[in-house]
Specification:
The protein is an alpha+beta fold and 132 residues long. It is built from four helices and six strands. It has helices at residues 2-9, 13-18, 38-51, 106-131; strands at 20-27, 35-36, 53-61, 68-77, 80-90, 96-104. It is globular, with a radius of gyration of 14 Å.
């Protein structure tokens, strides 16, 4: 999904949010329960941009015209390097309705969980304000 990748790489979070369906479901690599809705997904992505350092996509997998896409990335959280993948599904309108992230290794996932956990109160407040 070229538009999403370009928006993320440009750190244009308004453009990223515009690509999310209202009923998008975000599945975190470090939390069991998925997060439903555009507001919480956008708030999580805004926080991730602050947490990830040296983020870059290194590969795209999938048919550009199809509904399923995988974007492989590398990043750093503190002193932990990680590799991850954004698995995206787009609906008939071309909007992302399923967004699942996976990361490795475990030490990178743990660093990500800690950094995002420290921001989660603010993430929840932002999501609530956006959905009001």
């Amino acid at each position: 999904m070229r538009a999403f990748r370009e928006a993320v790489e440009a750190r244009d979070l308004d453009a990223v949010e515009a690509l999310l369906a209202e009923d998008v479901v975000f599945t975190s690599p470090v939390v069991f329960k998925p997060y439903p809705g555009k507001a919480i997904t956008a708030a999580i992505l805004r926080a991730v941009v602050q947490v990830f350092e040296d983020f870059r996509y290194v590969r795209e997998i999938g048919d550009p015209a199809g509904p399923d896409h995988a974007l492989v990335f590398t990043a750093r959280v503190g002193d932990r390097q990680l590799t991850g993948c954004d698995f995206l599904h787009v609906n008939e309108d071309g909007l992302i309705d399923d967004f699942m992230v996976m990361v490795r290794p475990l030490s990178g996932a743990q660093a990500l969980a800690e950094a995002m956990g420290a921001r989660f109160e603010q993430i929840a407040k932002e999501a609530e304000a956006r959905s009001a």
